[in-house]
């Protein structure tokens, strides 16, 4: 052990961070496997249209393709802000 060992970067921390990032990427790819290529574009366009009428967050629109027997189902979820006046 050298007196300057404390100056060397620890490689185990970066390796574990890289491994965790890779796990996240693989998990995301598995969820999108088999989904049509146009879904991200559809999601962005829907968000643009909704923003013309309501102020919503970028994560407010979720577009997914699901199977229902022999049919493909387009599942669109929009989280709208609660701007109703409170009763009180």
Automatic annotation (TrEMBL):
GO terms for biological process: cell division. SUPFAM superfamilies: Cell division protein MinE topological specificity domain (SSF55229). Keywords: Cell cycle, Cell division. The keyword Cell division applies. Prevents the cell division inhibition by proteins MinC and MinD at internal division sites while permitting inhibition at polar sites. This ensures cell division at the proper site by restricting the formation of a division septum at the midpoint of the long axis of the cell. Belongs to the MinE family. This is Cell division topological specificity factor.
């Amino acid at each position: 052990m050298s007196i300057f060992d404390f100056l060397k970067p620890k490689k185990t921390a970066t390796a574990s961070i890289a491994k965790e990032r890779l796990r996240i990427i693989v998990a995301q790819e598995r969820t999108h496997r088999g989904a049509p290529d146009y879904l991200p574009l559809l999601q962005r366009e829907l968000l643009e249209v909704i923003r013309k009428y309501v102020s919503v967050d970028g994560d407010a629109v979720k577009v997914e393709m699901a199977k229902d027997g022999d049919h493909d189902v387009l599942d669109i979820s929009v989280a709208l802000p609660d701007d109703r006046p409170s009763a009180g």
